Amino acid sequence: MLIRYKKAFEKIAMGLLSFMPNEKDLKKLQQTMKDYETDESWQLFLWKEDEDIIGLLGVNFIDPKIMQIQHISVNPSHRHQGIGKRMVNALQEMFPDWKASANDETIAFFEKCIQEGNTAEGSGC
Fold first, then answer.
1. What are the E-state strand segments in 41-117?
2. Cα 104 from chain centroid (whole Å)
3. Whole-angstrom Cα distance, residue 24 to residue 115?
4. Nearest Cα to Cα of residue 43 among 86, 113, 84, 94
5. For residue 97, what is the DSSP state?
6. Cβ within 8 Å of residue 69, ≥6 positions away
7. Are 123 and 82 contacting, i.e. CB atoms less than 8 angstroms apart?
8. Is the peptide bond prior to 21 cis by the omega test (within 30 degrees of 0)?
9. pLDDT tens column, 109-124
10. What predicted TM-score, i.e. pTM, was given to this entire model?
């Protein structure tokens, strides 16, 4: 289930965000978290299964009605189970009037997930 980020989940979110290639540096990671907490157009979502948070989706809401996926990360022990694709699908369901797009960091994943006929299970998404 896709849930909105809360400050109580900061350490978990930072851990998941640190799996992104451009978020390895602690200062950069802290700045990114600050941006999500202070910029209204930047929103962070977490993927929760049972009581565990295993995924993260960071989005920049851009006019006109475009939501750019800036960060997407899944705990390594839960990868290749379709969680990333489910997060993107859940985001689209939450914001049906918005069109999802990707940035340079997430484009390869995003394109892989939207390919026609690509199933969630075992797709690498």
1. 42-49, 52-62, 66-74, 99-102
2. 14
3. 29
4. 94
5. T
6. 57, 58, 59, 88, 91, 100, 101, 102, 103, 106, 110
7. yes
8. no
9. 888 876 644 444 444 4
10. 0.88
